[in-house]
Every structure is written in C-alpha cells, then in structure tokens.
Amino acid sequence: MAALAAPVSTALRQVFPDDPPAEPEAGPPRDESPQRWFVELSAAPKSDGGSDASLNAEKKAFRDGARAAGVRYRENFAYNDLFNGLSLTVTRSQLSTVARLPGVKAIYPVEIMQMPDPETNPHPDLITALTMTGADIAQNQLGLDGRGIRVAVMDTGIDIDHPDLGGNGTNHSTPFPTARVIKGWDFVGDAFNADPDSPTYNPVPSPDNNPDDCNGHGTHVSGIIGANGQVKGVAPKVKFGAYRVFGCQGSTTADIMIAAMERADHDGMDVLNMSIGSTYQWPEYPTAKAASRLVNKGIVVVASAGNSGATGMYSTGAPSTGDKVISVASFDNISARQRYFTASPDALKVGFNPATGSPAPPTSGTLPLGRVGTAASIDAACLPLPAGSLAGQAALIRRGGCTFYIKAINAQNAGAAAVVIYDNVAAAPLNPTVAGVPSVNIPAVGTTKAFGDLLDGRLASGPVELTWTGDTDSFPNVAGGLISSFSAYGLSPDLQLKPDIGAPGGSIWSTYPLESGGYASISGTSMASPHVAGAAALLLQSAPNTNAKNVARILQNSAQPKPWSLSPAAGLLDNVHRQGAGMLRIDDAVTAAVRIDPGKLSLGEGTSGATTQAITLKNTGKTPVTYALSFENAVTTGPNTFTPSFFLGDAGVTFYAPTVTLTKNQSVTIPVTITPPVAPVGGQYGGYLIFTPNDGSPTLRVPYAGYIGDYQLRQVLVPTANGFPWLAKLSGGFFNNQPSGATYTMVGDDIPFFLIHHDHQAREMRLDVYEAGSGKLWYTAYKEEFLGRNSTATGFFAYSWDGVTTKNKNKQLVVPNGSYILRLYVLKALGDENNPAHWEQWQSPVVTIARP
Predict the structure, then answer these.
(1) Where are the beta strands (DSSP E) in 492-586?
(2) Is the confidence at residue 789, as pLDDT, over 60?
(3) What does the pLDDT average to over 561-582?
(4) Contacts 24+ apart (CB under 8 A), 733-741
(5) Rounded CA gap, 543 and 547, in Å?
(6) How high is the pLDDT of residue 115?
(7) How is the beta sheet containing 667-675 ordered, strand by strand?
(8) 718 half-sphere exposure, CB direction, 13 A CA radius
(9) Among the listed residues 660, 583, 677, the one whose alpha carbon sits nearest the alpha carbon of residue 615
(10) Which pLDDT score, from 0 to 100, does residue 350 have?
(11) What's the CA angle centered on 528, arms 522 and 532, to 5 degrees?
C-alpha cells in the first residue's frame, strides 16, 4: 500500500488560541438531580414489532405493582409507538422502589430543556446564511423549493398569522390549520413552565389543538426552514407540522418530546426538526432512541447539537446523540445586524450588542471615551479602580481575567457613565452579561476585538468621543464561517462521531411572532438545525426515493470543514468532534453524482492501534471520474473534560492507491487504514479523508474521529473540592454531609441520600448493601444505566435508598433495623462488566436504620 503521510510521531505539540477568553468561575456545587423519570418497560415498542395489547398489559402490570408497593407518583405520559414505557413524577425517596418493580427494564431522568433567549435586531440577514450553505444556488439555479415535503417543527409553536409562513398578517385572525401549517398540536398551553427554579413554574400541561406561538423560537426556526415573504428560508414551499412543547416562557421536559414525536409520525411528516435537547446524554436516552426509530420509519430527523460548548467535551445533547439522528453544530453568520455608536473624529460606526443585566443604551448623547488598561491587558478592571477616575466617561475595557459583571461594576464605582467591553479574540460580536448584586445601573455593551483594538489605538493618540445612535447597520462578522463559541463538543459517550454536520446558527435573522415585531435575530445551534432540516427537504424533493437513513451521509459527503475558530490563521481545521463533517453545502449534495458510504468514521478508542475501514464509492452519473485520495488532520483536544486544550492532529492515514477511478454506474470499495495518535492520552482526535475529482465536480470528504488511548482509564468518580461522594441527610431542602455515618428512621425524607459527582458519563451505576461488621450482602439498593455527566466539575446527582433491596430483579427484601454500609459500583463508559478494572468503587460511612 502507498502511504500518503509521514509515520505517526510520538512528539506532541500543543497549540493555543490567539488569546483565550477568561475561564468561567466554577461556582458552588450544584444539585442536578431530576424530578421526573422515564420508566422503560421490557417489551419492544410498536416501531420494533410490539403490539398494543401486550404493551398495554405490561403497563397495567406496572401500575398494579406500583400500587401494591405503595409508590405515590403522577403519570405524565404513556408510550407505545417509539418507546415502551411511562413518564413519572415521583419523590426522591421512592425512586429506588420504582426501579425495582417487575417489568422495569431501565429508568432515565426526564431532563429539563431551557428555552433560548432571543437577541433581536431589526433587519434581515438570513440571505447571507443561505449563501453559506448553497441554499441560494439550490433555489435559484437548481429550481428547488421544498415543494411537496412536510416538515415537522417541535418547538414553541408557529405564529400561524405570520404572512411569511402562510398567515393572513393580522394577529389571532388566521384559522388553523392554514395553507402552510397543515398539522399540529399544542401539548402544553401558554402557562406551562417546567423549570422549578422559575417564578412562573407551572409543570401542569394544558394541551389544545392550536399550536400558535407566543414565544418566538419556533416561528424563528420555521422561518429558517421555509419562510416565503420578506425573508426566504431554505425550502420556501414546504408544508409545516407544528408541535408545541414549550409555553410562552421557561422550559419543557423530555417526556413531552416523545409524545410530540409520536404525533408527528402519525401525521405523516417527512422531516422532523428538533432545535432542543438534553445535554451530556447517551444514544440510549429515550428521546434519542425514539428519534432513531422515527428514521427507521422513514422520517429524516434533525436536531441541534446543543449550546453547551462552554462546559467542555462530551456535551452534545439527546436526541441529537441518536445513532440515526443528524446532529447539527453551529457556525457564525458572515454578517450581523447591530445597533451602533459612532466614534470621533470620523464618525466611525461601531457595532455593539447591549449587555444583559444593564439599562438599555440610549439612542442619543455624547460621552468622552476612557481607556482602562490597553489592548494587551489580560485583567483590565478586575480590581477596584480609583474613585472618580472614570467620571462621566464611557469606559473601554478589554475582556479577560474576571467576569463581565466585575468589570462593569468596578467601572460604575469609578464614576463611568457607560461601559464598552470588547473581546480578546477574533470572534462573533460579544454578548456580555453583567447581571449581579449590586446591579449595574449604567449602559453596558459588547463589541468585537477589531473595534476594541481600533478604539484603543485612537485613545492612545488622543481624546475620542462616543455618540450613541438608535440606528443599525450590517457589519461583517470576523468569525463568520467559523464554529460558534457556544456550539457543543462531542464525542458521544459511546465514542460515536457527533455532531454530524454544521450550518449557520450565529446571528440568524428570521421570522418572529407579529406581536413581537415580526422578525428577529437569534443565535444558537437551534438556528443551525433548521438549515439542515430545510436542506433535507430540498434533497428529498430532488431525489424523492432517498431513504431517510441515507440523508445524513449524502449531506456529509459534500460538507466543507472550516478552520479552527480560536486561531483561524493557523492553517488548522477545527475539531471534527465539534464541527462534524463541516459546513452544509446543499447545492453540492444535490448535484454530486458520486456517493460515499459510510458518511463518517467513528474509530473508538486507540488501544487496538491501526484500524482498516472499507469505503465504498458509487458513481450514479453517466460519465467516469477519477478521484485523488488524500487526508487532513484536524485539531486534537486534550483529556480534560471541562477545560479543553488543543494539540496538532497526528493520526496517520494509508490508502491502497493514490487514486480511484469510477466508470458509469460503478461501485468501488477501497480499504483505508487509520493509525491513531498516541498522545495526548485521553484526548480526542479527528480529520478528513478527501476525494478530489478530476472533472470539476465537488470535492467529497469523510470525517473520522476517535479517542486517544484506553477509554476505560477515564475516571468517573473524580474527587471534587466538596469531597463527593457523600452520605447525606436531607433537611429543609439542603443536604448535609454525614462523613461519620448517620441514623435514619426511614420515615418521609429521613432516608439515606448519596451525593455523587459524575465527571464523565457512565455505563452503569449500582449501590449494594452489606451488613456492617459481618459483611453479609443484602443485595442491590439502586441501579441505573447510561448515566450522563455533571455539567460542571463541582456538580452532583442525589440518589436515595428506601431500605428495600432487590435480589435478581425478582425478590425484594426489606432490610431490618441495624447498621449497614453501601458500596457504590460504577461501570465506565464502554466498559466490560466482567472486567474488575472497568469498575470504580466507593464505600459509604455506616448507615444505621432505626425504624420507630
């Protein structure tokens, strides 16, 4: 075989961003325990061959068993089609009882999904996003518009009055269904909010048959998919199904999502977009499994990868982690519409974003600009400033070293009349948050590094004045075409390559409810996902017989990977486990005559060394084509989950020959050998196999990614500053550590709780009970599979024990009064349950049961 790369080197070279932003503060430990739970029952759902009769009988048996065991719960949903089970609200103290009931296969937390906050701007910029994906070419040169394709939108609903989406343009006057929103259902009602920390918490749904949008997110997503009016979406002639799972504000839950998936299936949708997700989850999470089953039934499912990039590796969310779901990363738009102020002496327009937590910037007035630090400062305004030093000035402050709030409050205390914070990296326009106590009572805004450096240079030469305006303009985005700072990292916990592909999601202009202005600009992977959903509609229109399972592969073949966002000039490609195959190019996907299978290579852990993969190229065109074979490594990430570090990619790739020729209608399978790097151990690597044609047709690629070293060396129970795991008592809503052991009456909440930090996802967790002293086994107190990780290095999950254990799932034992220890066993992700080295252990202090 002919090697196209130098041998893999053991030398390791770390690379750094141009100027990394300040790291977020760790904060106090956070209880991330869920309130609602999926209960998966044993039989296969209808989508996998089950029958209603047997599934309903199994649910009746569960309900009878729960009643006999004295479990008090609220049943939220029951599912037969895409998932066999129920969603329950149950107290912490009875969760272990539920897990032991006959017929229960597994339990999973019902995650709460927060609704993104919009960032509004008054002029359209969607057209620039369409050019980034080739949707403009697909529409104008290829004649594609999505006609005949039905796209489901699971979100906050759709403003059915919006004229760009088929409404009559007058609030609350368009009857549902409409000419374009042909199906739908409201699962929750206006007042629903699943967030228990919200002042408007209301977890009780009030469904109805009109999925009208009172929030805006779903209308915005729908406009990207298929608006046809003042703005034009990717597929402007699709029909919509609107499945509302959010109220007017707040959050929703994963169990409502499965109910909406089943309805979209019954309504005959062709594509489902879910700009929503539960972070840190496995492909086995119920929403991910249900979504993959939809693909098996012929529906293309597209989901946002998540906006959790700041929380580090392995942060993609379900349902996008589903093995057949298209998980979408976000790239920033190439332009952004912003308000601006002007700067002397030439009335330079400086685009800005108002900071959250401060008063709105004025629309007129002039202030002298004052400089705190310089363009090289790493901690400007992080310490108190001299009183009066900024009196009456707009303080120009560089990002870094401390929070935006600290900078703003220190400037305010020094007499500043406004604050302008500029970025320390070349990135999308800064969106600072300055909320805190005491409050920031002066206008604060964020701008780009380029504008900040320019203003700093002017101040170095003399006085500069800032003049507020109420106007907006479109500003080139220096981060345009680069991965968005918020976009989540993969891999998935089972080391599958996620995300799958990327699309524009930063600063996207689209439709918005008429009562809220009709149009808005919002950022998020929520905005990237509908670009791919619309592209899927165009692809299905161009090739109606395309199998839903093949859409992801076809789109990945033609995607274009982009440079590393933290140092674009370094000549390196961004992490494969963050951008997937790269930027969507729907025009190339439609016109490419050659398809490559598989669309991606998930290479797993690197302990087995080089692996040979079979790549099949099929020419569906009428003319022969020859491809030159090459590859390019992307940036590798280091082992730390919460604080990414970056290294040069160093995988080796060997092809059987430097070229491959395909005649008309020919398929050719070629072997490709990939040798993983040996460092950094515990990191993630990736790159792209590149197929360059000799006929001018699009270059095709296949992304590859894997884990460096032995995945089972990755620790789950990493010690934290608070010393988790804990044996704890719950009192007044707070957990109190019991390091010397504790006595429990087993009445109400006076039961043992175990606070456990998961630094990484785990395949299984089990708590076994042993008699203190004799060591007699009293079997299993609690067991859970496919656990997500905590969002921070200090977070924890709380698990309870009710004094009952299970032997072999069939026999339950009430543990008598006495003294016991519990041993925690955690099986690592992809671990072998028969290999003791793949289990982590912890032993509790003595638990004394003293029932009255």
Answers:
(1) 501-506, 508-511, 519-522
(2) yes
(3) 96
(4) 735/31, 735/798, 738/845, 739/845, 740/845, 741/845, 741/846, 741/847, 741/848
(5) 10
(6) 66
(7) 2-3, 652-655, 667-675, 611-619, 594-597
(8) 20
(9) 660
(10) 96
(11) 145
